[in-house]
Design a protein that fits this description.
heterotrimer, A alpha+beta (about 375), B mainly alpha (about 325), C mainly alpha (about 550), A: about 375 residues, alpha+beta, Rieske Iron-sulfur Protein, 2 domains, four-stranded antiparallel beta sheet, 12 strands, disordered N terminus, C: about 550 residues, mainly alpha, Cytochrome Bc1 Complex, Chain C, two-stranded antiparallel sheet, 8 strands, globular
């Protein structure tokens, strides 16, 4: 046994007689690693420079440990509960204190380790053989033959029946999990994107079925509420939940803007939307979907003097006086317009209702939309 | 009004006068070139603690109350409004100002101020001057208060989109001017009393629905189309908020008292002022701008720090 | 060999016994020594990928903590926690539990913030690492596979980040989610089906938080971890690339051994990266969802942006013109081009680049030596062009904030972005290409004429000349004979060793005095070193 030589050409017997450093060097040679330069940073032990370096590293570790202690103390002792303004609001120091101490702890641990390597560990320049030559021609030929014979052993090239049926079974095994998992998640879109809860509902609101417009607190919207140059976010006043489990206020398709124009602002209605405002002949009140036709953000930055509606997500701009036609930015479609009318409520006041649903799908475009 | 149990604890219940400026906030404001968030600290002109809960007494706000008392009688308001704006408008304008009493002295002083500073553009009878400035008939005291107290008026130059600047008139003069305009043309005016009330959280919900689309959930403001701007709210006072909602200055829509009830308006103000005055629990708020300022901090401080670290670690020893 | 001798040779120390225990069972001695002796080059640019790796570890640790308190549920609840401005507001349990982590869990907020900053760092470091690999040609054969794994990691990292950003269900991320829904809807033919599949019906439905949660905490991290493992395994298998330098060759790699130097440095660097993330997490507030409010489809905030790694897509969406295609009663939404087609093109170009470059340059050889960016002007210029394109999109993603901060019209920002997107990339291509050529020429000029010394002489003829220091042997005309070898060329005298201060002058207030016997040993050593140095010089000359 003792005559067996390692790849580096040294025997175990020789290695036992070596100093650890010599044995280490023998190991690197065995691994194709050549230490071309190796120098102790402090060949003379006990110099002041060495001691200073040692103290520096130790100091870093000490600071790290102290910061750790500080972290635990701060974590336990500092107040962190949120309070209203008017109190000292000392909670604001909690997270910075924890973060600062944690950072100091980690930083000095890291700095200590790096300094240790830089100051105290020997300076080395090491070169390693890559051994990244391509596989030998012999290897390639033998492997190729192994694969070819193995394939021949299975008989697949000849037995096309097995090959085909195996393909079928493999296809089934690949497809079934996909069908089972994804199939369960598929939902048929149907016409859900094309309707909102503004669609007339004679069951809920007999006899006309016209849906009242309400604020987010279910108060009904009256023309009297809005002064010239106002805008309000309104919803269909439908308490019953739709197929998606949302009612008139929570449904993502619901949010609608009612705008009251200022005197002198006149609207140029789009084709087919002539009587959608109120009063129908000289519309002063207009209702548009709040959902941007570009990417679905609520487009609601209304400039009451210049009658522009801006979407805050991608800065599409809509001209309200042209029936919310896009005039700038990436949007291509006008905001859908809700035909509104006024009814007299039980208290004698006038309230808005939707005469019908939007005449086109609200929100961003999709393939099936014509 | 769920917030009445306001969670005061042993560790923070005693303090008063904790309204020193948070220097971290101010630094970042300056660097990023945003409006200085002076009132983030709650240090408002009246020096009154911000974000009082409903439990706090309203009596700590003598300034506004004193001035607001000097208001024109409700009857005069009604008549003026009817003349200028028509029935509906007047009905709501008056409901905004149920108890006002502007003294004749205020009106006279306001006239003096008007004739020295405003008359060139707005005309001798508030009728406006073509191509220079609009009529002030019917705009109401609220609008005057907002425009003058925020320094937008007297205007630095032509144009509808005036920027906030140092006010030319003091609080009393502003109110005198407002009283004068109110006495001639009528219109909506600021109510008397505490402008913060109600449930902060409800105010927050209303703010996010009605105001955040322009002013942002963190009150930073936003650019509108073609150079117009929705201003940040960090310097706005209670009165300015209320006046802006009532009068709809410049691009801003008007919010009548039927659309947002007076209580709802006060709730919104309560929410905004509370949040402005509350400190950031997670360290420096980086101006509460959101992902853009976070990205800036990330690339400068975060990536900068790790890059410095790899340069140091990778550097060859001498 | 008898059993008795074997026993007598056996280890006696506890660690020796432990080593024997494992080696007897796993035969570790050989393979383990190979790994300990493995050589890593220590150029600073090689540590960028490590930043991403360490951020990932921080993400796993903080993320696991967050799962203890986060409630991934779309179910509605009414908030009754410590943060009064949300008291009594209806919201999803996901949002409520995020508020709880931020306000009711001791130390929860800092972990949340570290997690978020680490996510930004993870993606950012991967991207910076990718550009390093690109500009130095490290993706070339045989490392194309690792380039592809890296690209997959970046894409998955961005998706993972977006899923995590969505989980708190706040107004900001909900707005982003609605845009994501619009992007799905914009896909031709299958768009609505994809949207309904992901959301389980119409947006927002009541399953999306639950689904994103399992993707965010299990599916994607598992794939990420596996791919990171593969990425590292390939580095170990193929060994690291390095810059050319004297004494280096294609067949060797030089640097430091893993144990102990590299391990200490890399371990230390892990802690430094963690420290930076902890400092950010504690000192800079990120994603304050309590200010944004719970998601409500009727509400929106101005200045809504995604996190930075998605901002370029937001920018492309903002800049894209309002083009909508209508085909046979169907609609191709304008959103499709900037959010689906554009990233697909970018990714395809990145995937194809290594193969494309090899084909164009007819380069079939394996490369272990890196290239200086200046030496491959076309690639460098293409990279800068891509980077410029990306940066214009990125800045446009925040163009409203920029418009507000610098008082610029929003419309001008949009048009400016559109124009710059078309003009800047080709312009930067040309400029970069020229700069590369200029730098190449300068390298050769220095090799030929030497380093400028800054010394000007007047010749007897009255002619002024500047004295150049040749870098090597010169020919009859005084021209250097060194050829350019792809390495850094020294261009200032101090890079040649001139003007550097003396070594061994130590001590701040007074020179350090060693004990006499130590001083003697030091002097002896120095004399020895000087001798060796002289011998070496004689040999090389």
């Amino acid at each position: 046994m003792s005559t067996t030589r390692s790849p580096a050409g040294v025997s175990a017997h020789e290695l036992r007689d070596m100093t650890p450093e010599q044995a280490m060097l023998a190991g690197t040679e065995a691994d194709g690693v050549h230490i071309v330069h190796r120098r102790d940073r402090f060949p003379v032990r006990g110099t002041k420079a060495e001691k200073r370096a040692e103290r520096g590293v130790a100091l870093a570790f000490l600071v790290s440990a102290l910061a750790g202690v500080g972290f635990v103390v701060a974590f336990v002792a500092l107040p962190f509960h949120w309070h209203l303004p008017g109190t000292p609001q000392t909670f604001r120091f909690y997270t910075p204190a924890l973060g600062g101490l944690l950072a100091v702890m980690l930083l000095f641990m890291g700095v200590g380790l790096v300094l240790w390597a830089k100051w105290l560990m020997p300076e080395e320049e090491v070169v390693q053989d890559r051994h990244d030559e391509p596989s030998s021609e012999e290897d390639r030929l033998m492997t190729q033959a192994t694969l070819a014979v193995g394939l021949e052993d299975t008989g697949l090239p000849r037995r096309s029946l097995i090959l085909r049926t195996l393909g079928l079974a493999g296809g089934a095994i690949a497809t079934v999990p996909l069908v089972a998992m994804v199939g369960a998640m598929i939902k048929k879109p149907g016409k859900q994107l094309e309707h909102t809860l503004f669609a007339p509902n004679t069951k809920l609101f007999p006899p006309s079925g016209r849906i009242p417009l309400v604020y987010s607190d279910w108060r009904r919207v009256s023309p009297d509420d809005l002064l010239p140059g106002s805008i309000a976010t309104v919803f269909p006043g439908v308490h019953e939940e739709g197929p998606d489990g949302k009612n008139g206020i929570t449904s993502a398709a619901s949010p609608t803007l009612v705008i009251r124009l200022r005197p002198g602002q006149q609207i140029e209605a789009r084709k087919g939307q002539a009587g959608f405002g109120w009063p129908p002949d000289a519309p002063e009140y207009l209702a548009f979907s709040k959902i941007c036709t570009h990417a679905g953000c609520p487009a609601s930055l209304y400039e009451q003097q210049t009658t522009r509606l801006l979407c805050p997500c991608h800065q599409s701009q809509f001209e309200v006086l042209k029936d919310a036609k896009p005039v700038f930015g990436p949007a291509t479609r006008s905001l859908p317009k809700l035909p509104i009318d006024v009814e007299i409520g039980s208290d004698g006041r006038q309230y808005f209702v939707a005469r019908a649903d939007f005449n086109e799908p609200i929100g961003p475009a999709f393939w099936e939309r014509s | 009004m769920t917030h009445v149990h306001d969670g005061l604890d042993d560790d923070s219940s005693t303090g008063k006068g904790e309204f020193v400026q948070d220097d971290i906030d101010i630094d970042v404001d300056g660097e990023l070139g945003f409006e200085p968030a002076v009132s983030v600290t709650g240090a408002e002109p009246s020096g009154r603690p911000a974000g009082r809960s409903r439990t706090a007494p309203a009596a700590s706000k003598p300034g506004s109350r004193r001035v607001l008392r000097r208001r024109l009688g409700a009857g005069a308001v009604l008549i003026g409004a009817l003349v200028s704006m028509g029935g509906t408008y007047a009905a709501f304008a008056s409901s905004s100002a149920p108890d006002t009493s502007n003294s004749a002295g205020d009106i006279a002083a306001g006239r003096q101020l008007y004739q020295t500073s405003c008359i060139t553009c707005h005309g001798a009878n508030l009728q406006g001057v073509k191509d220079r400035a609009p009529s002030l008939l019917g705009v109401g005291g609220a609008s005057v208060y907002f425009q003058v107290s925020t320094g937008r008026m007297p205007a630095a130059g032509q144009g509808a989109d005036q920027k906030r600047k140092t006010a030319k008139f003091d609080e009393q003069q502003v109110k005198q001017l407002a009283a004068y305009i109110q006495s001639i043309g009528g219109g909506p005016q600021l109510p008397v009393g505490d402008l913060r009330a109600g449930d902060i959280a409800k105010g927050g919900d209303l703010f996010r629905l009605n105001c955040a689309s322009c002013h942002g959930t963190t009150f930073q403001g936003a650019p509108l189309s073609a150079g117009k701007v929705a201003p940040g709210l960090n310097r706005a006072t209670d009165e300015q908020f209320y006046a802006a909602m009532l009068s709809g200055p410049e691009s801003m829509p008007i919010f009548s008292d039927h659309q947002l009830t007076p209580l709802q308006k006060r709730e919104i103000i309560n929410y905004v002022q509370t949040l402005k005055a509350s400190k950031d629990p997670g360290g420096n708020g980086i101006d509460r701008i959101g992902p853009v300022s976070e990205a800036l901090v990330f690339f400068i401080a975060g990536v900068g720090a790790v890059m410095a670290a790899i340069l140091w670690i990778g550097a060859k020893a001498e | 060999m008898s059993t008795t001798t074997r026993r007598s040779n056996g280890p006696r120390t506890p660690q020796g016994k432990a080593a024997k225990f494992f080696d007897d069972r796993l035969n570790l001695a050989g393979p383990m020594r190979k790994q300990l002796n493995k050589v890593f080059p220590d150029h600073w640019t090689f540590m960028m990928g490590e930043i991403a790796l360490y951020s990932f570890i921080v993400l796993l640790l903080t993320g696991t903590y967050l799962t203890f308190f986060f409630d991934p549920s779309s179910a509605e609840t009414v908030y009754h926690g410590r943060y009064l401005p949300m008291q009594g507001i209806p919201m999803s349990r996901a949002y409520a539990s995020t508020l709880n982590i931020s306000f009711d869990v001791r130390g929860g907020l800092i972990i949340r913030q570290i997690h978020h900053w680490a996510a930004l760092m993870f993606v950012g470091a991967m991207l910076i690492h990718m550009f390093r690999v690109f500009f130095t040609g490290a993706f070339r054969k045989p490392r194309e596979l690792n380039w592809l794994i890296g690209l997959t990691l970046i894409v998955l990292g961005i998706i993972e980040g977006f899923a995590g950003y969505t989980l708190p269900d706040d107004l900001l991320s909900g707005t982003g989610l609605r845009i994501a829904d619009a992007i799905m809807l914009s896909i031709p033919v299958i768009g609505t089906w994809v949207s309904f599949l992901v959301f389980g019906g119409t947006f927002p439905g009541d399953v999306i938080i639950e689904r994103f949660y399992i993707a965010h905490v299990l599916l994607i991290p598992a794939i990420l971890a596996a791919l990171i493992g593969a990425h590292l395994a390939l580095i170990v298998r193929q060994k690291h690339t390095e810059f050319p330098a004297p004494g280096r060759s294609e067949h060797t790699v030089s640097g430091e051994r893993v144990f102990p130097t590299y391990a200490a440095k890399a371990g230390g660097f892990f802690f430094i990266v963690a420290a930076v993330l902890a400092a950010l997490g504690g000192l800079a507030q990120i994603n304050p969802v309590w200010l944004f409010g719970p998601y409500n489809p009727a509400q929106v905030s101005s200045g809504s942006q995604p996190d930075w790694y998605m901002m370029f897509l937001d920018g492309s969406t903002r800049l894209f013109p309002s083009w909508e295609v209508r085909l046979w009663g169907h609609t191709l939404a304008p959103l499709f081009w900037p959010t689906v087609v554009l990233p697909t093109i970018l990714l395809t170009l990145a995937i194809g680049y290594p193969f494309l470059e090899a084909k164009m340059t007819r380069d079939t050889l394996p490369h272990n030596m890196l290239q200086r960016p200046r030496d491959v002007p076309v690639r460098t210029a293409l990279g800068v062009m891509a980077l410029t394109f990306y940066l214009v999109l990125f800045l446009s993603g925040g163009n409203d904030i920029i418009a507000k901060a610098f008082d610029i019209s929003l419309n001008a920002m949009t048009w400016g972005g559109r124009i710059l997107l078309l003009i800047l990339p080709p312009l930067f291509y040309i400029v970069t290409y020229r700069i590369c050529l200029g730098l190449q020429r300068h390298d050769r000029e220095v090799l030929e004429h030497g380093v400028e010394t800054g010394i000007v002489k007047v010749l007897p003829t009255g002619e002024f000349i500047e004295v150049h220091q040749p870098l090597g042997p010169v020919d009859a005309h005084g021209h250097g004979r060194l050829a350019y070898a792809g390495t850094q060329v020294p261009k200032r005298m101090n890079q040649l060793g001139a003007g550097t201060p003396l070594r061994h002058v130590r001590g701040f207030f007074y020179p350090v005095k060693e004990k006499p016997e130590i001083q003697a040993a030091l002097d002896e050593l120095e004399a020895l070193e000087v001798d060796q140095h002289d011998v070496q010089h004689q040999l090389t000359d």
